[in-house]
Description:
Layout lengths: L1 E5 L6 H10 L3 E5 L10 H6 L7 E4 L2 E4 L1 H11 L14 H24 L13 H12 L12 H15 L7 H11 L2 H11 L3
Parallel strand pairs: 1-2
Antiparallel strand pairs: 1-3, 3-4
This protein binds glutathione (GSH).
Amino acid sequence: MIKLFWCERSRAMRGAWLLEELGVPYELVRIDVRSEDPKPADFRKASPMGKVPAIQDGDTSLAESAAFSLYLADKYTDAGLAPLPDAPDRGDYLYWMIYTPGTIEPAMGEKFSGIAPNKLAHGWGDFPTMIQVLEGRLRDRTWLLGDSFCAADVLVGSSVNFMKMFGALPDSPILDAYLERCKARPAFARAMAHEAAYA
Ligand SMILES: N[C@@H](CCC(=O)N[C@@H](CS)C(=O)NCC(=O)O)C(=O)O
């Protein structure tokens, strides 16, 4: 069975959410990333940076939520969370899969750390443009690819949730409505239920 290396109140929620959306059984392995205690060897192998979430699936183990989400959504293709490689929206899908690690997260770092925006020099653009581009994408769409929910919605939806929780989300009816749609998904609620044990 797939192991999900997970910690409460962390980005690991998105790993649980994806696995719940896929309907794949998994074992939740809690790693307390806030403690200095030595971590198990299988976790250290999966996550050289010592970060959650990470997964182990047989001989394959990897961290970085976008990386393992690509892996899982392609492996469990019947769940319909990833367009097939030759589908017309595969390019859009890949772009939005990488929007979280490539653009949202560094732009959040810019905002939280008070780094001066410099979209010419910074690979992620800047925080206001990141929000503007996301709003533009979701203005007339239910989900990032239109009518069908995909794995990129797990990554981006969880990032929007994160920004909302930390007061970093500007006033945005478009992103607020998107977040409500994400939260209304039964798989989101099942992933959040893991948190309750550590509240
Ligand atoms: N880019 C990573 C970010 C993961 C990450 O930063 N996880 C944090 C918790 S939210 C962590 O494990 N921090 C512990 C540490 O770095 O020691 C991903 O998307 O999976």
